[in-house]
Every structure is written in C-alpha cells, then in structure tokens.
Specification:
This protein is mainly alpha-helical. It folds into two domains: 96 residues, no CATH class; 264 residues, no CATH class. It contains 16 helices and no strands. Helix 3 packs across helix 5, helix 9 packs antiparallel against helix 13 and helix 9 packs parallel to helix 14.
Amino acid sequence: MTIDSAGPGAPGGLDDPGEPGRPAGRRGAVDPVKALMHRHRELCERAVDPLEIAAGLEAHGVTDRTAARLRHRDVFSLAEEMYARAARDGEAPPRAETPGRPGPRAYWAVLALAPGVLGTAVVVALRLTGGPSRPAVAAFGALALAAGLYLAFRRGPLSTRNRTTGAARAWTCWLVAYALAGDGLLSAGRDGGPHGPWPLATAPVLALFLACAPATWCAHLFAARARHRLSASRGLEEFAASVRPLLIGAFGLYLAALFGLLALCGTVLDQPPGYAGAGALGALLLLARLLTARGFTRVPGRVLAGAGAVEALALGTVLAARLPGCSSLAGPVDTLAAVAGAGSVPALVCGAGALVLLVQATRTLTRASAHAPPDEAS
C-alpha cells in the first residue's frame, strides 16, 4: 500500500484530519474519518478484522493522539469504526488466511524439521564414508541442507517473503561456515599451520540446524500470543508493554532448546558443544530472522555483515601475521584466544550482534504495526 505523502501536521495529513479552524468530528460538512478511510482505502478493503486496520494505521503514523482529534479514545476504537463503516458499505472482503500468518493447516511446523533431519543424515553419511568419496558426500549434503532451509522458512512465522538480500544470505552462510571450521582454522593458524585438515565443529553446527524447528515454533508462539494481546489491548502503549515479556519469553525458550540440543549433539558426537559461540550465533540468527520477517531489514542486514566481517578480519590477521614484519597484527586475537580460547571470537562477535538486535526487537516487534498483514507491516 502506498503511504500518503501528506505527513503529520501537513494540510490533509494525519494530524490535520479536518479543515483549518473547524473542530474535528465524525460527521459534518467534512467527515475526517471518511477522509482517513479514503487515504487508506486499500487497507480497509483488505482487512479481515479491526485489528488489521489498527496495526496498519500505526504503521502509517496514526497515533492515539491522532485518534483523539477524531473523537476516539485510541487507534483501536478508530479502527473499529473504520472497519464497521467499510463493512456497511460492502467493501470488506471475506475472511481468508494470510500467507505467513499462523493458521489451522500450518504444515510449516512439520517442514521446520527438515534442516535438522537432513543435517543428521549428512553427519551420519560423512561418518560412514571416507577417501575420495567424502568431498562428494559433503557437497551433496550442503545442497541438501540448503534445500531443507528453503523448505523450512518458505512459509510460516519466519518466512521473509523475499525480503532477505543476497548480501544477508552470503554473510549468514559465512557465519555458519565459520562456526563449522573457523575455530579450528584459527587455532591451527596460531600454531603455525594449518598442517593438513583441521578439526571441524560438527556438533554445534548440527545443533543449529536442529534448532530451526524450535526457532519456528517459538516465533509462532510469539506471533499468536501477540495477536491475542492485540485484540485485548486498548492502546498502543498498553500493547507494547504486554508484548515485551512475550518476546523475551519466546527468545528465552528458544535459547533453552538450543542449549539442550548443543548438549545432546556434543554428547552423541563426542565433541565440545560450543555453548558460547554456537549459542550466540543461534541467538543472532533468530533475532535477525524475526526482524526481517516483519519487514525490518536494515539493522539485521548491517549487524550480520558486521559480525561476519569481524570474524573474517580476526581470521585474516592471524594468517597474515606470518608475513615478514606483520607479526603484531595477530596480537589482539592471540591475546583473546590465549585467555578464553578460539571460541571466544565468535562468542563475543555474535553475542554483541545479538544484543544489538535484541534491543532493536524490543523497540520494533512490540509495535502493533509489526503484527499487521505482510502488505501493511513494512
């Protein structure tokens, strides 16, 4: 829907619904509610309940103060009148399930298991094969995992509906690849290597793929509860205050599931679980996906790029330190790795990025407009 060029305070804008010098009202020579409905005609026509109108209005800058000028106590009350008048005029469409919204036939809940199932199959296949066939199995497994991720996130509450840029996908792949091989390569570089293949962190990465299912289910839980709070709230501030604990709770539930999967995979595969690094990466990826799925793409894209660039820089300085006269380049990374281990690099980088996105999420995902239909949430 095209946002009207008239902004707050402009003639005919959201904060000036009536004629200059004339009190705003619902009826009269100039009907400000009807004028507002005309500016948001597509929103009124597509809405299947007043809540969608309320969320869409907030996304377009209508506040409780604007509603008060129209003699309504809040945006929700204004939306109810707009929805009733649209229905009376025969403009409201029949109720239909919106893509990406939780529905009774949420087959995406089953497809969310695909990355974990395929990841487990790839790990088993790699352990059963060796020699020249192993690279071919690894390449085929990577393609299978990409297909599994596509199936898992094509629909459902974490579907980005083509909002993810190619750069964001590339940095995400790099972050996962670093989780698999970065710590081993960093340690080998500090020891003067690598001398042959270095160890891969299979257990943490497998846990991340298995965690795609709880991530999707937690996102669905948050979306469903938030929509329920949207119907019960009578103001934008009240809604934000009630949704913030839901967001923190869903995020905490996902982290609990992720750490449980890390412990399980570490035990089964007899590898370090990598709680700090993989946990921070899992938190970063979930928050980035939540924000992107709701149309907030700029900050997640920059944070993912920043985290990936810092990890690449850390690894590059260690390898470049072996050049003549460049030994001091690896000083900061060497010091950090000597004190807390190679896994401290992704833990700090991804943890800082996750913290930034958590703050951003508490500011944006607690708005009513974040829970509008896909076409209105941007």
